[in-house]
Each structure stands twice: as C-alpha cells, then as structure tokens.
C-alpha cells in the first residue's frame, strides 16, 4: 500500500520533529521553575508563568515556524500556527507524563510531583498555541528587519570599474580595432594586423 500525500498535508514526523524542538523550550522552563520553587507550589506556578513567557511561547513559535518551513500550509497561518502549538502541547504532555510517573515513583512527594505536572500541562496548552499563533500572525504579515540590527558590512576595496565601451583605435590607421577572443587581442581589419 502506497500513501500519497501532498506537501500541503505534511507528515506526522514533520509535526513531531518541530514539536520536540519546541518541547525542549518548555522542559527548560519547567526545570528552572522547579529548581527555584523548592517545593512551594505557589512559587512554582509564579515562576513557571514567568519562564513560560520566555521559553514556552518561543517554543510554540519555533514549532510553528518549523512546520511552516517543512510543508506548505493553508491560507490562515494564524490557525496553522495555533495547530502546531497545540500539537506541541500534546507532545509535551505525553513525554512529561512518563517522566513525571518515574519521578513520582522514585520521589518522596508524588502528590506534589503530579500537581506540578498538571500545572505545567495546563500552561503548556495556553502558551504553546499562543506562541504558534504569534508565529502564524508574523508569518502572514512579514516585517522588514529593523535597520538597527543590520550589521555594517566590512569595507573592501571597491570592485574594478567595468571595461569602457569606447572603441580602441589602431595606432597606424586610426580605425577601430576588433577584439579577437581566441587570441585575447585586438585586430585591425583595415591594416590586417595586430597592433
């Protein structure tokens, strides 16, 4: 059986690859929030919101951007980005479920571990799609790079001027010379010689 898909439809592995890269952003955010909270769920939630703004939204943005580059998407790029962000949140949920189960089994506070996981999953379903939507919005309305970010080009010697179109004249008869490419020389058709 042969599966034929168009570039517009994309493949599951395209979405998975982009989502896994976006997932790494949230994994970093959750790790940083857990490390700074020291078991306090209120502090963890606050830290995760702050980290989500700087890591999970960009994770959704990156996942949507990669999906836009991997396959052709529809007309409504905002919704396509939202879909990519939502898919990334699903990947995040599945992967972190397994790591949370292991942590809960091996750790001393399984309830707190699962509560932290639920909080990160809820926020991932908000922030990943938001980042994807922002990417679709920006993709639909491309903006030029601000001039403040353009790097000055290194100065080099200016290129040599193009050869002038003025005809060279024969020093003997004063008639225009013809260029013979085979010999890389000029030839006077009047004098029948190379000057």
Q: Are there runs of 5+ residues with pLDDT below 50, and where?
A: 1-8
Task: Give the helices and strands as they follow along the chain.
Answer: HHHHEE
Morphology:
rod-shaped
Q: Roughly what fraction of the amino acids lie in strands? A: under 5%
Main sheet summary: 2 strands, antiparallel
Identify the strand order in the major beta sheet: 1-2
Mean model confidence by pLDDT: 76
Summing up helix and strand content along with how strands pair, one would put the structural category as mainly alpha
Number of helices: 4
Specify the oligomeric state. single chain
Query: How helical, in percent, are the residues?
Result: 55-70%
Count the E strands: 2
Distance between the termini: 75 Å
State Rg. 32 Å
List strands and helices in order, with pairings:
Blueprint: H1 12-37, H2 41-70, H3 77-106, H4 110-140, E1 178-180, E2 185-187
Antiparallel strand pairs: 1-2
Helix pairs in contact: 1-2, 1-3, 1-4, 2-3, 2-4, 3-4
Structural description of this entry:
The protein has 195 residues and is mainly alpha-helical. The chain has a domain at 12-142. Helix content is 60%, strand content 3%. It has helices at 12-37, 41-70, 77-106, 110-140; strands at 178-180, 185-187. Strands 1-2 form a two-stranded antiparallel ribbon. Residues 1-8 have low confidence and may be disordered.
């Amino acid at each position: 059986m042969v599966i034929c898909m168009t570039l517009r439809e994309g493949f599951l592995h395209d979405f998975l690859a982009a989502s896994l890269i976006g997932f790494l952003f949230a994994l970093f955010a959750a790790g940083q929030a857990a490390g700074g909270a020291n078991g306090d769920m209120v502090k963890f939630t606050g830290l995760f919101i702050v980290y989500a703004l700087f890591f999970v939204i960009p994770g959704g943005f990156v996942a949507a951007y990669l999906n836009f580059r991997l396959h052709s998407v529809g007309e409504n790029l905002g919704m396509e980005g939202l879909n990519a962000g939502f898919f990334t949140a699903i990947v995040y949920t599945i992967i972190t479920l397994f790591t949370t189960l292991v942590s809960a089994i091996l750790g001393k506070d399984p309830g707190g571990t699962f509560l932290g996981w639920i909080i990160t999953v809820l926020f991932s379903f908000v922030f990943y799609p938001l980042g994807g939507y922002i990417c679709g919005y920006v993709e639909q309305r491309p903006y030029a790079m601000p001039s403040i970010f353009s790097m000055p080009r290194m100065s080099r010697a200016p290129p040599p001027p193009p050869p002038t179109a003025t005809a060279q004249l024969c020093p003997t008869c004063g008639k225009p010379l013809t260029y013979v490419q085979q010999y890389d020389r000029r030839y006077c058709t009047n004098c029948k010689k190379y000057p």
